[in-house]
Backbone:
């Protein structure tokens, strides 16, 4: 089926600074909000000038009615310019783009989704958790586990939101200022060694090194894993062939065939 | 008042002089949701080779001031799959399809490609890409390989050979990575090319200072976007005064004003490249913008603009 993509000038409804260079924008677009799926992203123009030239990709963080949210970390000039935008300003946005997470796994067989987030990787996973939580029925044993890895306790994002959805959240920080001292992948290793995880499906987003480790761990336990990849994107909608990743079927465009892939299809360099 | 935008390139009649540049428009279907593709003057396909090419390893692109570097490496499905799977998609746009071709092995491959395409009525014209900076094998990645379009004799030979293989409109795409682009344009004209396209990307390089790694895997790549526009306009102007065949100008065209620069410098038509990535409606907006400019300035025919820059020499 051909999915619809929109290019629109969209109004910023609200903005929230979340500390530690993180901020959240709520954007008003019935079209994008109604068609977006977890794991998809949008391409934003952060300036009308030629520097920065290219759009910036950001995951769809949450959807509520006619608005959707993006969660962003300031890492360079583009995200810095974006952080200066205020409610009432308009942004030129293309979306929703890419192939998101596959949320339709046979629910009877797979009762345990494990979401692994590293840093900004939590951004698309809230939307995913919301969609997965809809599958929960009264007497099912269905339980979503969320493993969050962050630099320090002030870099932990979305903990409350996940808990509100009924997820079981575990936290690791690099400096041990909250939760386990270590990485999200350390939490996953511990999790997977328990018997209850035999029917788990792993969903993950975060830095490349973490994705690779998660893929390896899931593979070792014979668990299906979906990974949301990042690549430098010049267009975001399949036209430039710039964003490819090596897979078992040759190069695939992260922006079009991805950003979410099955971990065992990727050739992890 | 109505302004005339139509233009002829060889035997090819275009309803307007705005095309989508090779390699920057996917196979057109990626843009169907953004604009009415029927508005375009023509589409140029991604460059096709005889055999499939998987292209260069990632990362393949990075951003630079007012531009971008790419080293896609002519990823394409090869001639057969192109004809069977991609050409029909391009034809669906309803506008003339110009097929761009390149050779991995010298001019006989160009001749074979052109010979096959010559038989297809869906192909409106052939553009020979003798200027792609990304077609060397990755084994010699840091080594620059001489392009056909860096040698007037080689340019002449290839164009001449392809000319014999096809009666279709033939366009030769030139590289800016030369001392004197007019020599190459004149060689293409002498060999029977119906038009020249310029410019392809400018070879460039960018380093990530935190990691000391080149930002793209192939180390060097092709620079495109507004950053190269003055180079492109200058080259169009130089070539315009040396040849009689039409020039298809490109390089950093983002909007109507930058499109007009090219016509005034001597282009008969233009191609939109990198701008498609930033504003997928750019080509359609420029077509409307050109028409408005002509009407506002009481110019009846866009051909009156060609080479109209008021330069003394
Ligand atoms: C599918 C996808 C979803 C993403 N979702 C989020 C998100 O939800 N929240 C978030 O904070 N970040 C997200 N990112 C990362 C975000 O796009 C980059 O941080 C941002 O583009 C950096 O721009 P900059 O100008 O601030 O930094 P720059 O100084 O330009 O670069 C900093 C880093 O960002 C990378 N980058 C720059 N431009 C691009 C581009 N056009 N495409 C991809 N990477 C780029 C660079 O390679 C570099 O590693 C996502 C990236 C992708 C590919
Ligand atoms: C990602 C990318 C891929 C390209 N691929 C091709 C190609 O396959 N064949 C070709 O002749 N030119 C190719 N080009 C060059 C463009 O067609 C054009 O000549 C050049 O980018 C300058 O125009 P621009 O600045 O408007 O992009 C490519 C350019 C880009 C940015
Ligand atoms: S970013 Fe252009 S094809 Fe993916």
Residues:
């Amino acid at each position: 089926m051909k999915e619809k993509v929109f290019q629109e000038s969209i109004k910023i409804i609200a903005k929230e600074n979340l500390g530690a260079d993180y901020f959240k924008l709520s954007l008003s677009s019935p079209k994008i909000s109604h068609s977006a799926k977890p794991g998809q992203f949008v391409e934003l123009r952060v300036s009308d000038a030629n520097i920065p030239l290219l759009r910036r990709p950001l995951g769809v963080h949450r959807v509520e009615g006619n608005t959707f949210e993006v969660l962003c970390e300031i890492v360079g000039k583009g995200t810095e310019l974006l952080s200066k935008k205020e409610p009432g300003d308009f942004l030129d946005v293309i979306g929703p783009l890419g192939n998101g997470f596959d949320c339709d796994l046979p629910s009877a067989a797979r009762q345990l989704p494990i979401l692994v987030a590293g840093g900004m990787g939590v951004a698309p996973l809230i939307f995913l958790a919301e969609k997965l939580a809809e599958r929960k029925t009264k007497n099912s044993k269905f339980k979503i586990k969320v493993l969050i890895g962050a630099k320090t306790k002030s870099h932990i994002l979305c903990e409350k939101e996940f808990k509100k959805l009924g997820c079981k959240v575990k936290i690791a920080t690099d400096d041990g200022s909250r939760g386990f001292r270590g990485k999200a992948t350390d939490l996953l290793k511990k999790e997977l060694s328990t018997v209850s995880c035999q029917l788990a499906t792993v969903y993950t987003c975060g830095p490349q090194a973490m994705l690779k480790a998660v893929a390896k761990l899931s593979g070792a336990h014979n668990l299906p894993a979906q990974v949301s990849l990042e690549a430098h994107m010049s267009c975001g909608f399949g036209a430039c062939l710039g964003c490819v990743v090596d897979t078992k079927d040759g190069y695939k465009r992260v922006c079009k065939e991805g950003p979410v892939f099955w971990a065992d299809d990727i050739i992890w360099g | 008042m109505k302004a005339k935008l139509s233009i002829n390139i060889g035997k090819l009649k275009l309803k307007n002089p705005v095309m989508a540049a090779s390699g920057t428009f996917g196979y057109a279907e990626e843009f169907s949701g953004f604009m009415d593709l029927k508005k375009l003057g023509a589409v140029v396909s991604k460059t096709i080779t005889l055999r499939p090419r998987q292209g260069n390893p990632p990362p393949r692109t990075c951003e630079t001031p007012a531009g971008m570097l790419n080293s896609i490496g002519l990823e394409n499905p090869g001639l057969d799959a192109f004809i069977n799977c991609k050409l029909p998609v391009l034809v669906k746009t309803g506008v003339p399809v110009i097929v761009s071709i390149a050779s991995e092995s010298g001019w006989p491959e160009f001749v074979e490609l052109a010979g096959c395409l010559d038989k297809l009525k869906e192909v409106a014209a052939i553009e020979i890409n003798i200027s792609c900076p990304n077609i060397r094998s990755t084994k010699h990645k840091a080594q620059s390989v001489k392009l056909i379009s860096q040698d007037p004799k080689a340019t002449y030979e290839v164009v001449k050979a392809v000319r014999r293989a096809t009666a279709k409109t033939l366009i030769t795409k030139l590289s800016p990575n030369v001392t004197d682009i007019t020599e190459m344009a004149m060689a293409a004209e002498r060999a029977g090319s119906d038009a020249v396209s310029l410019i392809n990307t400018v070879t460039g390089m960018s380093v990530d200072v935190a990691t000391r790694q080149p930002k793209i895997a192939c180390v060097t790549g092709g620079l495109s976007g507004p950053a190269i526009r003055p180079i492109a306009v200058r080259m169009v102007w130089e070539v315009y005064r040396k040849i009689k065949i039409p020039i298809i100008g490109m390089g950093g065209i983002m909007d109507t004003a930058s499109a007009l620069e090219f016509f005034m410098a001597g282009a008969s038509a233009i191609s939109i490249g990198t701008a498609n990535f930033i504003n997928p409606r750019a080509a359609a907006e420029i077509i409307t913008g050109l028409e408005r400019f002509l009407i506002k300035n009481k110019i009846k025919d866009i051909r009156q603009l060609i080479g109209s820059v008021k330069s003394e020499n």
Remarks:
- Residues 137-142 of chain B have pLDDT under 50 and may be disordered.
